Structure formats: structure tokens, C-alpha cells
Amino acid sequence: MSAPTSPNHDLTGKNIRSWFVVAYTGERDGVRYWRCMCRKYLAEKVIAEQEILDQDVNTWFCATRRWWEAEENPIGWIYGEWTVLGPAGVHASAPPAEQGPFWKCRCSCGIERDIAQRLLTWGPMIAWCAPWYQVLDGPVGATWARTLSCGCRPDMEVRAVLQKKQFEARQGFAQARGRARRRLRETKHDKKWTRDMERALRNFQPACVLCGYAGDLTIHHVRPLSDGSGKKPGNVVRVCRSCNCRIGPRSLRALAPEIARALKTAAAQFKEFWESGCAPSQADPAVQKKESPKALDPALVALLRAVERGDDGAIATLATWLEEKGDPRAPAIWDVARLKVQIAQPIEKTEPSEDWRRLGNEVWRRLGLSVDQWSALSLYLGIDSKRVATSIEQIAKWQGVRVPTIQKRIDTALYRLTVPNPYGHQMRAM
Length: 430
Hints:
The chain is of the alpha+beta class. It has helices at residues 49-53, 62-72, 117-128, 130-133, 138-146, 155-189, 195-204, 241-247, 257-275, 298-309, 314-324, 330-341, 354-366, 371-381, 392-399, 403-418, 424-429, and strands at 15-16, 19-28, 31-38, 44-48, 77-79, 82-89, 102-107, 112-116, 217-221, 236-240. A hairpin with a 5-residue loop joins strand 3 (31-38) and strand 4 (44-48).
């Protein structure tokens, strides 16, 4: 097999039905091979790329079947650092706890050893259940610990790496199943939604109905899709992705009264607009002039920088400044300032304490900003005292995301700071 150089299309870290792709292992005879972890069995195996991408071979339901097949014949599976090569016969001198079929295994360092199948198949379970494994003692617990490697690497290091990969596989499996269930609900309940309705909704609601931001808009179900309410006039509104993530799939009863009222009003207005034949009127949001974001006030930038540094009285000064400007978020910032008084700050501090950082994060939430939006904006404006980015490309490189994503975060953060939104902190408080 050739050296594992990075291929043109990288599958590392992706969840493809029943497999979680861990790493690229190389190419042989024109076929690329990947090291994958089974979502159900939580053990690894080297699989050809065609088998991973083939929907007839790699299905949702083959994970359970793969579990029983690996129990009967674990050849080719990877448990920790061990790769099963083949059967090793019966060891008559083995202790009673290790009686059973033995398999010849090779460690990643090249050492070969005969290991009982019971210890191999239980290895991933022990690595996943590391907290209660620590309380085990005696020869059984010590033997389980040695099944992850031959001793070339510390057991805790191997267990930590394996536990991280298993967590990502489980998480990806749960997210993929959630997306599949949502697609089934959409197929069942969104049958009456047409392209003409979506085109009319875009023209009628050109901006978010909650914050007024006109970028990165999504369609939100007023009554959740899980309750059997699909896309139809009277149940859909357009909100920005940030507001959509804050609201989530919650029902109207779980939302703040002001937000629920705004969503129901916007949905009812679109239903009336659609039933009237999409005739524009003076009361339609499409003909109302939307307030555009203005340049950020230098005084506000200075106040935000003081809050980030942890200066005494910075939050109260920010609340006073917002109150003088008539910003509806001023009372929410005053609440954070009162919490700050209850925290005893050290007289001499070189950097903000953890309590102060939590208060700073609460300030950004009350201003309507997410953690990602504030992180990108602080680097963009030089508010972060530790490092300042010279370009958006540099911020994207530091945070490991794409440039358009950073641009959307910065635009959304600037809009939320320049155009006050009274719903910003209420959606996060629920």
C-alpha cells in the first residue's frame, strides 16, 4: 500500500451512514482505503472507498449485523492499537478468565501477540466507560488495561484517543439519525408547500421578522415540525440563522410572549398576503423601509474593549451609555452589572478571573450576540487584547472555518450592535 498522502477529496471526520471515517490509510491497486469506525460496534476497520460510498453496501441497518459478524470472526478489525490477523489456536495454560478462542494480533509498533477474543471485544467498551473502569482492581482489570496496546504507548493516552473517536462516532450517528427523521417528517407534512409559496414568502419577508437582519435567512416553522405542523401559509416565517438556532424546535408556549407574538403575527400576515393573491399593500413588510446597520460608534468599541479587559465599572458604564441612547437592551445589561457587584474581584490581577469572563459572556448574550459572533467581531475590531487579526482570512484560519462563515458572523454582529433588538437576550434566557 502506498504512503497515506492526503487525497483530493478528504473524508476524514465525516459520518457516512454506518461508518465514521477516522483517517486515510493509503492506496493499493488504484483503490483508496480509509480507517473507519463502526457506529454501532465502536471498533475500527480499514475499508475501501467504494464500499464506504456505496449506498447498497453501506446502509443504516448493516451496523447491527456487523456487530454479530465481528463477534464470530474479528479478523481485520482494530481494537485500540491491536489489529486482528487470524486465529491462534487454543491456549491450554491460559487462566480461567481468559478461556476461549485466541487471535493473533499485531500492535501498531509491530509486536505480535495472542489475545483472547473476550479481551479484544471488551476493549472498546472499557475505553468508552473509562470513569467506572478506574474503580476496577484485581487481575481482570489489569488484563483489560493491557488489551489496548502492548505497552508501547501509555494506557491513558490510547484510551483518551479511542474515547474521543467513539464520542465523535456516536455524536455523528445521533445527528445523522435526527436529520433522517426530520427529512421523513418534511416529506410527510410539507407536501402542500410549493415553489410559488416560497417565492412569495421571500418577497413578503425580505428580512428576519425578529431582528430585521437581511442576511443568511432560513424558513422557520412557527408550530414545530415534530407536532405534525409542516410548511404552509400561516405556519412559516423567515428568520436569520442565528435567531433560528436560538429559538430551536420549541413550541410557542416555551418561548417568551413577545417572541411568540411576533412569530404568530408575521405568519398570519403572510397567510393573508397569500390568500389575497399576493397583492402588495402599504402594511406589507415588503414595502416598509428596513433600517440598515450603521458604522459602529467608537465609544461603543471602547466600552466593549473595557468589558473584555475586565475593567472595574465597565459593565455599568456600558449600561449607562445604552440607556442614554434609548437602547432597549440597557435594563438587561444593568442586571449583569448588579451581578458583578456580588463577585469579589482581586485587588491586583493580571488578567480577568473566570467569574468575570462569565459575566462578559453574559453581556454579549444580552446584546444579542452568540459566542462565535463575538469572537470573530472582537478579532476583527481589535477588541481582543491578546491578538488582533489583520484580515478576515486570518480570522478564518485561526478559528478553522471558511471565510464566508466569518464574514456572515461579523456582518450579523455589527447589525445586532447597531440596530437594537429587544428580543436578543430574551431568546437566550428561555
